[in-house]
UniProtKB/TrEMBL annotation, chain A:
Residues 1-92 form the BLUF domain. SMART domains: BLUF (SM01034). InterPro entries: Acylphosphatase-like_dom_sf, BLUF_domain. Gene3D superfamilies: 3.30.70.100. It comes from the Bacteria. It comes from Hymenobacter ruricola. This is BLUF domain-containing protein.
TrEMBL record, chain B:
Signal peptide: none annotated. Residues 406-621 form the Histidine kinase domain. The keyword Transferase applies. It catalyses: ATP + protein L-histidine = ADP + protein N-phospho-L-histidine. Its EC number is 2.7.13.3. It comes from the Bacteria. This is histidine kinase. Residues 265-307 form the PAS domain. SUPFAM superfamilies: ATPase domain of HSP90 chaperone/DNA topoisomerase II/histidine kinase, Homodimeric domain of signal transducing histidine kinase, PYP-like sensor domain (PAS domain). Residues 212-264, 338-388 form the PAC domain. It comes from Hymenobacter ruricola. Keywords: Kinase, Phosphoprotein, Transferase.
Length: 150, 621
């Protein structure tokens, strides 16, 4: 099993409907292929972590990276893992109309995102934190700044 | 019949036909088409001049002249506008009008034959073509002005590679006379190192029918070679068959020099970074490491790929990773500099202390992070060693104080005895010699001084060290841990295993400094006299005897020693069992004295080559 993390930019801003459609399609197709993961979206910034079998994930990443809805796809990690960490996750973004999305399955408002699961290595958890920071900015990060002790 | 047929044909001819008779030029035969030309119905016998219609005055004039002179006349593309309704502009129509004089036999001209062929469409086409050519000329001029004023050299080259056109800038640039043979000279002006490449590249582009874009050096009028960018696109006449290439040469020398300087600067900086024996790295605005210097690979034994964008965290001591990661994310979010002291794993698995520092650089290329990891292990270790040595010195100092204290205490009794004996001597012996009396007085005085000095010594040390401090209830475990912390270097170096078991009697009521002194001496002794064949193993246990008294045993697996046969104090000051091993020899004497002073005693059993066990009976004498 491997996981892949990438960041990209949406070619056009994605509307709530676009995101909803993407969410539906991803949930359906990923479930069928036993792919799990999480997708972050905000103001054209995209980041996604996908985990699954290598034979499934690598072609999927090829398809995703050629998807015309985004560009500048930069792969950050592609490496073997021993366990899944995002089985219950799907997507997090700032919808323009939050009311309709709160109840939606697999969707989370960025500020409701839990910290990365402890099944991730510290290096990978930090990567997810940085990716989330890059997509949503500093405000959405769950504020738990440690008192700096130099 | 034939006449009738002719009439019919004339009537329906697509050209206007009319006969005009007599000097008045009265309408005779007028066919249908001519009616259309005239735009209004005419009667036979009506003079043309009377017909209020379409025939312009100048044509009427010409008709008169043809009639009089008898010379035919043809007016090409003559405009006879179609009369329009009130207020509307008449539609222009064009006709080729032929006027043919008619004679009866050889007689004088009796009338005119009038032909009018509609050439409006042709005329309009011609006029359009005319306008077009004017427009083309205008565009052409504009293009020329443009191509001759832009800073670029523009050119046109044909499929065979022959230059059809080059803008005057080429001549300014190269300094060649306008008479120069472009095709012969141009290749000679290209820098020799670029010439073959350029000729080949343009050749193959022309063969493939595609455009090109390449850079090369061309010699300027002053002999200097300047970098130019040559770009050209084919002009396709038939699909896939280019006839001409039009292009421009742009001077990019300065940009190129700048880019070159930048590249060189970057390469030099990188070289610098790669030459420094320190871990250096850069990170993107998002906090992902995108460059590690060569030393990083050397130190960690991992490639850039293996380290990855966040893999540096794996180099840290596992207990420090989470905190370091959290602080990095915080720095990225806030832009605050990053700094911390961490142990970093070297390729051989050893951890060395490093200060990791990173700062954000924000310029027009967006924020980036620059970081270093400075090896401070030697300093760190030196500090630790110094601390240990300091601890050791403080200990020894304390031990000496204790020694002075106990020694002064121990000497008190003999001095007391001496004074008693001296008093006895003075009482029983008689001193006749006055000198003797003086000496007796001096001895008495010296004894008094000795006594006072001992007292003073004891009092001073006692005050300073709190050795006679009141007893308190002490947690054996925490005091033992404290002592082991002071000995950690020795413990680490000898790879000693220390088992502490205070479950049977966890606390002891004793003087804190005394207990520490005793444990320190017992532990350090055991480590010092370890058997070099095996790592030391200390077993420390507290217990309560049958009589309810607390005891402590310290058992080691060290060298062991020969014990003297008689049950006497085992340890005399400065007497050492193992002269080859460093130590003041005073420690165990102290231990014994302290224990005795508190009403206890020390037992020892030992086997050479197997180890020694000390048993402290705290209060049982
Ligand atoms: C940002 C982004 C993330 C995507 N993530 C997934 C994904 O996790 N799983 C998936 O099946 N398709 C994902 N897609 C969609 C794929 O690129 C592709 O459109 C989809 O698999 C449908 O492909 P198909 O038409 O060949 O079936 C994503 C697209 C974008 C733009």
């Amino acid at each position: 099993m491997i996981h892949i993390v990438y960041m990209s930019r949406a070619v056009r801003p994605l509307s709530d409907q676009d995101l909803q459609a993407l969410l539906d399609q991803c949930r359906r197709d990923n479930a069928a292929r036993n792919v799990t993961g999480v997708l972050f979206y905000s103001h054209g910034n995209i980041a996604q972590l996908i985990e699954g079998e290598k034979e499934v994930l690598e072609p999927l990443f090829d398809v995703i990276s050629r998807d015309g809805r985004h560009s500048n796809v930069v792969k950050l990690v592609d490496k073997p893992i021993t366990a899944r960490s995002f089985e219950d996750w799907s997507m997090a973004f700032h919808p323009l109309e939050p009311s309709g999305f709160e109840a939606l399955q697999g969707f989370l408002l960025p500020r409701h995102l839990p910290p990365p699961p402890s099944s991730l290595s510290i290096a990978d958890a930090m990567l997810v934190d940085l990716v989330r920071l890059a997509v949503f900015g500093a405000d959405a990060a769950p504020a738990e700044p440690e008192p700096a002790h130099a | 019949m034939r006449e009738q047929q002719l009439q019919d044909i004339l009537q329906h001819m697509p050209a206007g036909v009319a006969t005009l008779q007599g000097p008045e030029l009265c309408y005779g035969f007028v066919n249908e088409a001519m009616h259309t030309v005239l735009g209004a119905p005419v009667r036979e016998g009506q003079p043309v001049a009377e017909h209020p219609g379409t025939i312009p005055a100048d044509l009427l004039e010409v008709m008169q002249q043809v009639f009089q002179s008898g010379r035919p006349y043809v007016a090409k593309a003559y405009c006879i506008p179609l009369p329009a309704a009130e207020g509307k502009k008449p539609t222009p129509r064009y006709f080729d009008v032929a006027l043919e004089p008619v004679r009866e036999g050889d007689g004088p001209v009796s009338g005119l034959l009038l032909f009018a062929v509609d050439v409006t469409a042709q005329e309009e086409a011609r006029q359009k073509a005319h306008h077009l050519s004017i427009e083309t000329r205008r565009l052409d001029t504009r293009l020329r002005v443009l191509t001759e004023t832009v800073p670029q050299i523009t050119f046109t080259v044909d499929a065979a590679g022959k230059y059809e056109y080059v803008s005057p800038q080429w001549y300014y640039f190269t300094g060649q006379p306008p008479t120069a043979d472009l095709n012969a000279i141009w290749p000679l002006l290209i820098h020799p190192d670029d010439r073959l490449r350029v000729l080949y590249q343009s050749d193959s582009a022309r063969a493939a029918g595609i455009g090109w874009s390449y850079e090369y050096r061309l010699r300027r009028h002053d002999g200097q070679y300047r970098w130019l960018l040559s770009r050209a696109l084919p002009e396709l006449h038939a699909p896939d068959q280019a006839v001409f290439w039009h292009g421009a040469l742009t001077e990019i020398h300065d940009q190129r020099e700048l880019a070159e300087a930048l590249r060189r600067g970057e390469a030099e900086l990188r070289f610098l970074a790669d030459s420094i024996p320190e871990l250096i790295w850069t990170a993107t605005a998002e906090g992902f490491i995108d460059y590690y210097n060569e030393y990083t690979a050397e130190y960690s034994g991992l490639t850039k790929e293996e380290l990855g964008p966040t893999g540096w965290i794996n180099l840290l001591d596992p207990s420090e990773q989470a905190g370091a990661a959290r602080r990095w994310v915080t720095s990225i979010a806030s832009g605050e500099p990053y700094e911390g002291l961490f142990r970093m794993r070297r390729h051989d698995g050893r951890y060395r202390w490093h200060i990791i520092r990173a700062r954000q650089l924000a310029d027009e290329r967006g924020p980036r992070w620059f970081g270093t990891c400075t090896d401070v292990d030697d300093q760190h270790r030196l500090r630790e060693v110094l601390q240990t040595q300091y601890d050791e010195l403080a200990r020894t100092n304390r031990d000496l104080d204790t020694f002075v204290y106990t020694a002064s205490h121990d000497l008190k009794q003999p001095v007391l005895n001496l004074r008693g004996l001296f008093e006895e001597l003075r009482r029983t012996a008689s001193f006749n010699d006055p000198e003797d009396k003086k000496i007796v007085g001096m001895v008495d005085e010296a004894l008094g001084q000795l006594d006072a000095t001992l007292l003073e010594l004891a009092a001073t040390v006692q005050d300073q060290r709190g050795l006679s401090a009141p007893v308190e209830t002490l947690d054996l475990r925490s005091v033992a841990d404290e002592v082991l912390l002071g000995l950690r270097v020795q413990v680490q170096e000898s790879e000693a295993v220390v088992d502490l078991d205070f479950s049977a009697a966890p606390t002891l009521t004793y003087g804190r400094a005394n207990l520490r002194s005793i444990l320190h001496n017992l532990f350090s002794n055991a480590l010092k006299f370890a058997d070099p064949e095996r790592p030391p193993h200390l077993q420390v246990r507290s217990a309560v005897t049958e009589t309810g008294q607390p005891v402590l045993t310290v058992q080691d697996n060290g060298l062991g020693m020969e014990l003297p046969g008689r049950p006497a104090p085992v340890f005399q000051p400065f007497a050492r069992q193992h002269p080859h091993i460093a130590g003041a020899g005073v420690g165990m004497y102290l231990v014994q004295r302290i224990i005795a002073s508190r009403g206890g005693h020390l037992d020892v059993t030992s086997k050479v080559g197997q180890g020694t066990t000390f048993t402290v009976h705290w209060f049982e004498n």
